[in-house]
Hints:
The protein has 232 residues and is α+β, with helices and mostly antiparallel strands.
Amino acid sequence: MNTEELYIWRYGKDKLPKGLLEYGKSDVCDTYDEGKRQKFQDHGQWMWKNKDGWRENLPPVLYLVCNKKPGILQFDFIDKYSIKLKIVSEEFLSLLQENGFVDKYDIATVKVVNKKNESLTDKKYYALRINHFDNDSFHYGKGITFHQNDIEKKSGISFTVYPDMKLKDNSIKQNFFVLNSIEYGDGIIFRERVLDKVLNLYKPEIYKLSDYSKLWINKGFYPYGNEFMIVK
């Protein structure tokens, strides 16, 4: 029986430590035009799909635009689930690739800049546009289905989390996984065997999947540093 613990790296929406980039405080753009009033724009259709797949190739370079001072940002991972992008540092990308997370994404270089197009960090970053998700790699067990509020309940909107998720095949070499779901899609799931290496990255917010279920249901009560968060 597979008893290896599974974890998820996923940031909340506020009260993040210095060096991290808060939810909703950045934009991803594909074009910088000095002559325009709105200098950063999206000209392509690379973030959209049709029945045949992505409408356009991922541009070779993307801009992550945020209102920060140079030298502050140190993050290794942020998620842009709405456009199926995961932005990772060069260090985290190397860890992903070393642990079997390959052939699942298109990749672009990311320039982290402010609205004046000034570079904000010396760290190198990349955007991964996920093409292949790992939903079929898990046994989900009994789920917990819930509504976040009365409006969702009346509208028939519900969510399901799975505290007993396990890998179907414990012999595979892949140690990092991405799911295509609202509940798990804005994080990266990984196996216990790489926990120490993930904890060595910059201020990750990590939970056991069993605890993550509690947080997702009541996420407003669990800011960064809460009792369930795994720390080094």
